[in-house]
Specification:
204 residues; alpha/beta; Zincin-like; 2 domains
């Protein structure tokens, strides 16, 4: 993931809005995320490291620990926030790669679609998925933070493209047959990722 200079500058506007908590007993800062009905957490731990270094440990695939010289930099340094957001995006990408393919296979088998031979994640904020004629299905990792129903709908939408590449009447009829879009799903997919993730999304 590339950190763009303009994005780093824009990140300064949201640093003070980072949803972190400071635990005075442990000295940790904590970020709590919920994705696909599972809780994930990021902990920021003071460590004796060079000032510009960050060490990352993944614990049980549901907890990330960030060791850094001074967690206080998270409120003052756009470089630190950029590095941290980038690390979290990479972690979320791994979570998505461990989550989405199984759902794709499940619905491919259920509705007898061919299983796409290629899968990738994106950091798109509104174009939640895409399907290419070479068999590549792409799903936004931000859908981790939407409902399972919304994620399922996007995946089935893209699988329908294995039969109909356009969005014509045939495609719409197929999608409605396989996975009708409810008003709740339509409303949810019209929104942006949760606001508490805004400072991370800006880095993508």
């Amino acid at each position: 993931m590339i950190i763009h200079t303009t994005a780093l500058k824009n990140a300064a506007n949201s640093i003070n809005e980072m949803p972190t908590e400071f635990n005075i007993l442990t000295g940790f800062k904590e970020l709590h995320l919920k994705a696909i009905n599972k809780n994930y957490s990021v902990r920021f731990v003071h460590a004796v490291l060079p000032f510009d270094k960050i060490t990352i440990s993944i614990m049980n695939n549901s907890e990330m620990v960030i060791y850094m010289n001074s967690p206080d930099r998270l409120t003052t340094s756009t470089k630190a926030i950029g590095i941290l957001a980038n690390a979290i995006i990479n972690w979320l990408n791994k979570i998505a790669h461990n989550t989405y393919p199984a759902i794709i296979r499940e619905y491919s088998q259920r509705f007898q679609f061919p299983i796409p031979p290629h899968f990738r994640t994106t950091t798109a904020r509104t174009k939640w998925g895409s399907y290419k004629s070479d068999g590549t299905i792409s799903i936004s990792l931000w859908l981790l933070f939407f409902s399972r129903e919304a994620l399922n709908h996007v995946i089935v939408h893209e699988l329908c493209h294995t039969r109909c590449m356009d969005h014509g009447a045939g495609f719409k009829a197929l999608l409605n047959q396989m996975c009708p879009e409810t008003p709740q799903i339509k409303k949810e997919l019209a929104t942006s990722p949760p606001p508490e993730l805004a400072w991370i999304v800006q880095q993508s």
